Amino acid sequence: MSSLSRTSGIRRPRLHSLWLAAALAAAGLAGASHADARTVRWARSVDAQTLDPMSANIGPTTAVAHQIYEPLVHRGYDGKLVPTLAVEWRNLAEDPTVWEVKLRQGVKFHDGSAFTADDVVFSFDRARSPTSDFRGLITSIESVTKVDAHTVRIKTKAPNPLLFENLTNIFMMSKAWAEANNAVQPQNIRERQENGATRNAMGTGAYQLVSREPDVRTVMRRFEGYWGRSQFPLEVSELILVPIQQDATRIAALLSGEVDAVHDVPVQDIARLQQSPGVKVNTGPENRVIFLGFNVGSAELKSSDIRGRNPFADRRVRAAINGAVNRDAITRVVMRGQGVPIGYVGTNFISGYSPEIAAVPRVDVAGANKALDEAGYPRRPDAGNTRFSVTLQCTNNRYVADENICQALVGMLGQIGIKANLVAKPAAQHFPELQREELDFFLVGWGIPTYDAEYVLTFMFHTRTASNGTWNGTRYSNPALDARMIALQTMPDVARRNAEIADLQRILKDETIYVPLHVQSISHAMRGGLQVPVHPDAQAWFKYFRFGTS
Description:
The chain is α+β, with helices and mostly antiparallel strands.
């Protein structure tokens, strides 16, 4: 087996009353019995956008997918790859562009059918199709072919030592089920279309779908035919996901015992929960950066009062905003210490991380005002002494203190004469608008499940194409840099690759296409003795979890 040895030279991780009653009644939980202590009611601020495991590359959606579906490998709580539906993988000595993969035998889908190489070939083809939001992870793949019932070969366009680092969210589906249920192609979530996998599922995971009510609840039950019954605790027999957007309602539900775990604890409630009898809080850093993005490509901004030109197309304007943001104040006051300020879109979990590039810019309001004057955006007495106005679009239920962060940013931007009109929306509305390039100025967060800087470059900075730049809502395009980003996928020389990543990151940091804010921490709260550790990717695999005594 050569699961990690191929990348040994690459840096790895270092590791109220009426309101509550109404919300719980809508979720079908009011008065729920706790006779079955193995049932876990899992509350999150946001629901999965879909059950289709390939249509939305968003954390809450993949978190649900990981309960029902499985990839060939997943990343354990120590950050290392764990064999899942693959048990062995190696480069062929005679051709380093070919990986031979041995599949786990005896695996069953939830309908009792056998998992085979045919399903793997189908799943990779599906993941590479135009409506898949994960195709950017596997653009280096040329073909996937069946050798026998439990062996496949993955051929890449050039040697790719990082291939398996990119497969942790490529889920395996039943070819027969997809063909029988109008799910051969991934759901086109940008266009609000649905298919047979949007509200239904058929995986090999530890939990099988019982029912799905979007934004209300999703019920999953332990799959008794699961291949890993002897390898994982599987102490949770029934899992009920309950989306509760309002922070106060979510925490009240935990304290009252109506839910057993809260995935995303609001920062203002951490200290109180730590003092609450029977409640445990686990906190840890997340492999995710929160940042601002600009529309740098349009001739003018739809949401601005400046006509005929686009302020954000001028790097001086973007740099001024970068210098006016007080990251320390945001993490210290707004987030109450649940974050670390950063100056680049990358974390110290990933290969390619550089403390020099991640250094936080000095707050310089005077310099920012001067830069805006030089860029030709003076203060206008007839417009309240502002330079220009623009809409700042934020989520209000996705990231730690997201709406509060944006409220603080409004004040900071006001100091340099930019009037930011805040619009905060649920993630289910915000992200499709971002992907359709409808936003001028926005907050977004980016997790890095491959633990490699190339993931950030090709998803967030690459020119928007069918396969790359799929989350680049800025309209930024630099074909010369695009080619260098793609070349990283098949660059086996580690020293040369790290040098290339560092150079690309320096160029892009100077461009200031994004304004990085911080690496956020995340807190889980639980009761009833349930033990829920924090994963750097903010994922949760309930098959691992146990019940303790507190």
